[in-house]
C-alpha cells in the first residue's frame, strides 16, 4: 500500500517537473507537439483514403515507415552497449549514461511500434495478432518473433530504470541482485531484437538482395555504431542544458564503441560490394540499381552516394584518436555517421530489396508529403517521450525529486 | 527416389496406387469408398449415430450439460462476445426511438463482422453464419441481392494449371475476364494476370519483356507468357503471415481471409512470383458490373488495406467449372484441372509434354507448369 502512495507521489512529482522548465524547454516541447499534431493529421488522411496516399505500390510495398522501423530497432538495441560495461563489466564510468541510454531505447521502441502500426493496412484489426484472442502464427512467421522480442525488450527497458529510479526516489540504494539479472538478460535480448529483425528480411528467398547471410551481422554492426552515436549527441545536449554531470571519460569511452562498430560495419560493406560486383549475377541487379541505377532509373543514387562518403569519412576520422578525443569533432562525426547509417538502412536496404521486382520490372519509390509528415510526427513522438523520461530521471538522480513521507515529516 | 528429402517437394500421388480415386462418386467425406461401414448391422449403426450426434453428453445431464462444457479460450471469448452483443442489442433497441430496424440490423452485423474469428478455423456453421451476414449486409446497403457460398475443398482434388507458350498470342482476354469475374478494383486497374511479351530468340528475358503493351498482337517476332499466382505447394507467403490470414486449402488453393488480413504486406515481400496485390485504397466496381456469384474466399467485395490474389476462381473451380481465364482464352493456351485425377487433361500434359516451372530453385513447388507444342 505504501508503495502505491510512493508511486502516486512519483507520478505527481514527475508531472510537475516535466511541465516546468526554461523558455527554451517550452519551445522545444511546444515544437514537438506541433509536429506530432501535423503527423496525426497526415495519419488521419492516410486512414481515410488508404495507403494510396503514400508513395508505396504493389512493386515497392514497404517504404519509409518500415525503413525507419528497421533503423530504430538498431537504435534501441544500442542501449545495451552501455548496459554491458556498467552492470556486467563493472565499469562505473557509464552509470550516468545508462539511464539515458535505456530511456532512449524505450523511446526508440515506442517509435518502432508506431511505425509498424502506421504501415498497417488495417490497424483496426490489429487485435488479430494478440495471442489468445487472435491467431498468432508462431513460430512460422518471423514477424511474430519480432513482436515478441520487441515487446519483451520494451518491458525490460522500462522496468530496470523504473526500479532504479523508484528506489533512488525514496532515497534508497537500488539492490544489485534485483536489477543485474535483468540487465544481463537485456544484453542478450538486444542482440536478439536486431538479429530477429534482420531475419525478417533475410529469410525471404524471393528477395536476393536481402537473402544473404551477412545481413544479420551487418545489422548489428551498423546498429552499434548509429545507436551509441545518437547517445553521444544526446549526452552532449543534456550536458549543456542541465546540471546532470557527464564526464568526458564516459563520452570518450562510448566514442570508442562507435569507432569499433563503424569499422566493422565498413569491412562488411566492402565484403558485400565485392560479392555483388566482382562476379555479378542476376541477383546483383538490386545492388546495381542502388549504386549505379538500372535502365536509366536512378532515384536512389543521390541517397546512397551521400551515405557512403559520410560513412567512410566518419569512420576514418573516428579511427584517429586525436580527432576522436576532440569533442567538437566527435560530435560532428557522430552526426554524419548517424545520418549515413539512417540512409543506408532505409533507402539503401529496404527499397532496393523490391527493385527490380520479381520479374525484373523497375518501379521507383519516392515518399509522399503525407508519408513524410507521419514519419516526422512519429520521430517527434519519440523525442517527446524521451524528453519526459530523461527529465524525470535526471531530476531524481540529481536529488531534486524526492519522496516526502507525510507521516515522517509530521512527526 | 531418396526418402530423405532436404527440401519440400510436391506430391501428386503419382507413385501411389490409388483405386479410381478421382472417379469416385460416393460422396463420402470420411473413409474410402471400400471402407467397412457398409457391413454395419442396424444396431451398430444406431449406436454409431447416437455417438456421432450427442457423443459424451449422453452420459451427463442437467447442470453438467449446460455448465460443464469443455471450452477453449476462443469459444469462451466468442460466447462472451455473443452475450455482450445480445445485451448491447437489447439496450440499443429499447433505448433508441429514432433509429430504424435496418440501421440497427446493420450495426449489429457490422459489430459481429468486426469481431468474428479467422475463416480458416471456422466450422461449417460459422462459415454459413458469416456469409449470411455478408449477404444481408449487402442487401441492406444496396437493396440488391448477391449469392455467396462457402464450399469447402473436396476430397481427392488438387488443382493444377498448365500454360502453353506456343499457343498464347497475347490477346489478354484472360486478363479482362479475370478482372470482371473477380470484382477487382477498377480505379487502380488491378490485374492478377500479367502477360509478358518476349522477343523470339532471346529466351526468357523477363527484365526485357513488356507486360504493359497496347499494340496489335501477336506482334511479329515475339512470344507471350502469362504469370499469376502459382498456388505453390510450399508457399512462402503463407509461412510469413503473422496472423494466418492466408493459407493453403486442401485442394491446393492458396487463399486469403480478407477480413482477417491486417495489411502488413509481408506476404507480398515474400512472394517470388508477383502473385499478390494490395488494396491501396477502397476498391470500387461499378454496381452494374459486379459479379454476384461469389465465394467467401474468392471474388467477394474486398475492403481497403487488405491483400488479395488469384484463387483459381474458387467460386467456379469448386463448382466443377474452369477459372474464368481458362474459359476466356481464345487460343486454348490455358489448361486447368485436377492433378489427382489420372484422366484429366492437366495430367495428360504433365505426362506427355516437356513441362517446366519458374524459379524452381527456390523450392516453392508451384502448381503451374509451362510447356510448348
UniProtKB/TrEMBL annotation, chain A:
UniProt KW keywords: Cell membrane, Membrane, Transmembrane, Transmembrane helix
Annotated signal sequence range: none
Membrane topology: Multi-pass membrane protein
Record field: transmembrane: 27-46, 66-85, 97-118, 147-166, 178-201, 221-242, 254-274, 300-320, 329-352, 372-394
Top-level taxon of the source organism: Bacteria
Cellular component terms (Gene Ontology): plasma membrane
Record's subcellular location: Cell membrane
Family: Belongs to the NrfD family.
Protein name as annotated: Polysulfide reductase NrfD
Upper taxonomic lineage: Bacteria, Pseudomonadati, Bacteroidota, Flavobacteriia, Flavobacteriales
Designated gene of the protein: nrfD
Automatic annotation (TrEMBL), chain B:
Highest taxon of source: Bacteria
Protein keywords: 4Fe-4S, Iron, Iron-sulfur, Metal-binding
Molecular function per GO: 4 iron, 4 sulfur cluster binding; metal ion binding
UniProt cross-references to SUPFAM superfamilies, sorted A to Z: 4Fe-4S ferredoxins
4Fe-4S ferredoxin-type domain location: 252-281
UniProt keyword Iron-sulfur, yes or no: yes
InterPro entries the UniProt entry points to: 4Fe4S_Fe-S-bd, 4Fe4S_Fe_S_CS, ET_IronSulfur_Cluster-Binding
PANTHER family named in the record: PROTEIN NRFC, PROTEIN NRFC HOMOLOG
Name of the protein: 4Fe-4S dicluster domain-containing protein
Source organism (scientific name): Gelidibacter salicanalis
Amino acid at each position: 500500500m505504501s508503495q502505491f502512495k510512493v508511486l502516486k507521489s512519483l507520478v505527481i512529482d514527475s508531472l510537475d517537473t516535466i511541465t516546468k522548465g526554461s523558455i527554451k524547454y517550452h519551445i522545444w516541447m511546444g515544437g514537438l507537439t506541433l509536429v506530432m499534431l501535423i503527423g496525426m493529421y497526415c495519419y488521419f488522411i492516410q486512414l481515410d483514403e488508404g495507403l494510396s496516399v503514400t508513395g508505396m505500390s504493389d512493386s515497392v510495398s514497404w517504404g519509409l515507415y518500415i525503413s525507419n522501423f528497421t533503423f530504430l530497432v538498431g537504435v534501441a538495441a544500442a542501449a545495451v552497449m552501455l548496459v554491458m560495461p556498467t552492470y556486467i563489466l563493472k565499469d562505473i564510468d557509464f552509470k550516468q549514461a545508462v539511464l539515458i541510454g535505456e530511456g532512449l531505447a524505450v523511446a526508440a521502441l515506442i517509435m518502432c511500434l508506431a511505425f509498424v502500426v502506421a504501415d498497417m493496412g488495417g490497424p483496426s484489426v490489429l487485435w488479430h495478432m494478440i495471442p489468445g484472442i487472435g491467431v498468432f502464427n508462431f513460430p512460422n512467421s518471423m514477424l511474430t518473433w519480432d513482436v515478441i522480442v520487441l515487446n519483451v525488450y520494451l518491458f525490460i527497458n522500462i522496468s530496470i530504470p523504473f526500479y532504479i529510479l523508484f528506489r533512488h526516489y525514496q532515497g534508497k540504494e537500488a539492490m544489485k541482485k534485483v536489477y543485474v539479472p535483468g540487465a544481463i538478460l537485456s544484453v542478450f535480448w538486444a542482440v536478439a531484437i536486431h538479429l530477429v529483425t534482420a531475419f525478417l528480411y533475410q529469410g525471404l528467398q524471393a528477395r536476393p538482395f536481402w537473402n544473404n547471410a551477412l545481413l544479420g551481422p551487418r545489422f548489428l554492426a551498423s546498429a552499434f555504431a548509429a545507436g551509441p552515436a545518437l547517445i553521444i549527441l544526446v549526452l552532449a545536449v543534456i550536458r549543456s542544458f542541465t546540471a546532470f554531470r557527464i564526464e568526458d571519460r564516459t563520452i570518450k569511452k562510448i566514442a570508442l564503441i562507435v569507432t569499433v562498430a563503424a569499422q566493422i560495419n565498413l569491412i562488411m560493406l566492402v565484403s558485400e560490394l565485392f560479392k555483388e560486383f566482382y562476379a555479378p549475377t542476376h541477383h546483383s541487379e538490386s545492388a546495381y540499381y542502388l549504386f549505379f541505377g538500372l535502365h536509366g532509373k536512378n532515384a536512389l543514387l543521390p541517397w546512397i552516394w551521400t551515405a557512403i562518403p559520410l560513412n567512410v569519412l566518419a569512420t576514418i576520422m573516428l579511427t584517429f584518436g586525436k580527432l576522436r578525443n576532440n569533442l567538437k569533432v566527435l560530435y560532428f562525426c557522430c552526426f554524419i555517421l548517424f545520418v549515413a547509417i539512417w540512409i543506408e538502412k532505409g533507402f539503401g536496404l529496404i527499397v532496393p530489396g523490391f527493385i527490380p521486382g520479381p520479374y525484373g520490372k523497375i518501379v521507383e519509390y519516392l515518399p509522399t508529403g503525407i508519408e513524410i509528415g507521419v514519419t516526422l510526427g512519429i520521430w517527434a513522438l519519440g523525442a517527446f517521450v524521451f524528453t519526459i523520461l530523461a527529465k524525470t530521471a535526471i531530476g531524481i538522480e540529481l536529488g531534486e525529486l524526492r519522496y516526502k513521507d507525510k507521516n515522517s515529516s509530521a512527526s | 527416389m531418396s526418402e530423405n528429402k532436404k527440401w519440400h517437394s510436391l506430391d501428386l500421388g503419382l507413385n501411389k496406387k490409388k483405386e479410381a480415386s478421382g472417379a469416385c462418386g460416393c460422396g463420402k467425406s470420411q473413409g474410402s469408398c471400400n471402407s467397412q461401414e457398409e457391413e454395419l448391422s442396424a444396431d451398430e449403426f444406431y449406436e454409431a449415430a447416437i455417438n456421432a450426434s450427442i457423443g459424451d453428453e449422453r452420459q451427463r445431464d442437467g447442470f453438467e450439460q449446460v455448465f460443464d462444457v469443455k471450452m477453449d479460450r476462443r469459444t469462451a471469448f466468442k460466447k462472451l462476445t455473443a452475450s455482450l452483443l445480445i445485451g448491447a442489442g437489447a439496450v440499443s433497441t429499447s433505448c433508441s426511438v429514432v433509429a430504424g430496424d435496418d440501421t440497427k440490423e446493420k450495426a449489429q452485423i457490422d459489430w459481429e463482422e468486426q469481431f468474428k474469428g479467422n475463416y480458416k478455423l471456422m466450422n461449417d456453421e460459422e462459415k454459413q453464419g458469416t456469409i449470411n451476414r455478408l449477404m444481408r449486409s449487402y442487401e441492406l446497403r444496396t437493396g440488391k441481392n448477391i449469392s455467396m457460398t462457402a464450399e469447402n475443398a473436396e476430397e481427392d482434388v488438387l488443382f493444377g494449371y498448365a500454360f502453353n507458350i506456343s499457343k498464347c498470342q497475347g490477346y489478354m482476354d484472360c486478363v479482362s475476364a479475370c478482372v470482371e469475374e473477380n470484382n477487382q478494383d477498377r480505379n487502380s486497374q488491378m490485374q492478377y494476370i500479367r502477360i509478358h511479351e518476349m522477343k523470339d530468340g532471346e529466351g526468357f528475358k523477363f527484365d526485357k519483356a513488356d507486360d504493359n503493351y497496347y499494340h496489335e498482337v501477336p506482334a511479329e517476332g515475339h512470344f507471350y507468357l502469362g504469370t499469376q499466382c502459382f498456388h505453390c505447394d510450399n508457399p512462402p507467403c503463407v509461412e510469413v503471415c503473422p496472423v494466418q490470414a492466408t493459407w493453403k486449402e486442401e485442394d491446393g488453393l492458396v487463399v486469403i481471409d480478407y477480413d482477417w488480413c491486417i495489411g502488413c504486406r509481408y506476404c507480398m515481400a515474400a512472394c517470388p512470383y508477383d502473385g499478390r496485390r494490395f488494396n491501396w485504397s477502397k476498391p470500387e466496381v461499378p454496381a452494374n458490373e459486379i459479379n454476384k456469384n461469389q465465394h467467401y474466399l474468392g471474388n467477394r467485395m474486398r475492403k481497403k488495406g487488405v491483400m488479395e490474389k488469384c484463387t483459381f476462381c474458387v467460386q467456379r473451380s469448386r463448382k466443377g467449372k474452369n477459372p474464368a481465364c481458362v474459359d476466356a482464352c481464345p487460343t486454348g493456351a490455358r489448361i486447368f484441372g485436377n492433378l489427382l485425377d489420372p484422366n484429366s487433361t492437366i495430367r495428360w500434359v504433365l505426362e506427355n509434354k516437356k513441362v517446366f516451372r519458374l524459379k524452381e530453385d527456390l523450392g516453392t513447388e508451384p502448381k503451374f507448369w509451362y510447356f510448348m507444342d
